[in-house]
Amino acid sequence: MAQFPAVRMRRLRHNPTIRRLVQETHLTLNDLILPLFIHHGRGVKNPISSMPGHYQISCDYLAEEIEEIMRLGISAVILFGIPEHKDALGSGSLQETGIIQQAIKTIKALNSELLVIADVCLCEYTDHGHCGVIHERNSIKDLNNDATLELLAQQAISFACAGADVIAPSGNIDGMVAAIRTALDQEDFAHIPIMSYAVKYASALYGPFREAAQGAPKFGHRSTYQMDPANGQEALREVALDLEEGADMLMVKPGSSYSDIIYRCKQAFPGVPMAAYHVSGEFAMIKAAAANGWLDEKKVVLEVLTGLKRAGADLIINYHCKDVAKWLGK
Q1: What is the rounded distance in angstroms from the CA atom of residue 8 to the CA atom of residue 53?
Q2: In CATH, what number does 25-328 get?
Q3: Is residue 200 annotated as a catalytic residue, yes or no?
């Protein structure tokens, strides 16, 4: 291979047009998914203190929200609900009148072309804040994996009946994809894809989200069903299992803190669409640093999201979505 001075790598960097022509990774609006937090009631627009620019909104604010989303060119949203009532089984999420069911119907009536992804989990709807059914054995409370599967299947069917385009199970419950895929197929929803949170770590970066979705666990922690942040090979096993069970798309969460995992999963399964979730804590850290003048928010956000794409993410769920839409539109 030729060496310096015959080869000068800077030749392709000297001119801005050349830099654009040889750019390897491109971030576009089509890559981005915006999370929305839907609150029960009417007239609700609660600012989320740890997530500047984001709100818990009631369904009557969706017209305003969807109008802005479409004007910005954002084509996909993922929904999280804050119900009026919570119980041990999260039964409010299974009802036709549930908050997410209402939101899906409202959004589809406003704009049928906007892609609506429904997060399927129970933590936002249970009074204990865990992602499934809790049982107690020898005075120790733990999540009952198999009893949870039936509820997740019911929730997925209810969201599909309301008009969801994609089902996204997020609880890291063993067998969740198979249970949901079987239920969807039996109820004539074989066309609806599953975006599985296949690799979801028990991260400390979810704090702002738990404020936003009001779903923090009331006791214990989620390390018995979410992954150990120290593990990498385990991620490949989780992905392989979910694909065998019928997942159509995969997700790694958190995003930028686990870009090595995104890369490894994409290399192992190159033909499968891969999503990254740039989570609330990652968002909040950038926002806080920018507010203090410690970094250039636009440059950092675009660098981070481009890095996720370079690692192998085809889709990125992120809270910077509206700002990025404005920046990319210029």
Answers
A1: 45
A2: 3.20.20.70
A3: yes
DSSP state letters, 85-139? --BTT-GGGGSTTSHHHHHHHHHHHH-TTSEEEEEE-STTTBSS--SS-EEEETT
DSSP 188-200: T-TTS-BEEEEEE
| Catalytic site residue from 105, 218, 253, 298 | 253
Q: Which of 86, 200, 266, 309 is catalytic?
A: 200
Evaluate whether 122 touches 93 at the Cβ level (below 8 Å): yes
Helix (H) and strand (E) counts for the chain? 11, 12
Tens digit of each residue's pLDDT (9 = 90 or more) over 64-87: 999 999 999 999 999 999 999 999
Q: Is there a catalytic annotation at residue 253? A: yes
Q: Do residues 143 and 151 touch, judged by C-beta distance below 8 A?
A: no
Half-sphere exposure of 261 (CA within 13 A, CB side): 29
Is it the case that residue 220 has pLDDT exceeding 80?
no
Looking at residue 330, its pLDDT comes to 55
- Do residues 170 and 238 touch, judged by C-beta distance below 8 A? no
Segments making up each domain of the chain, as ranges:
25-328
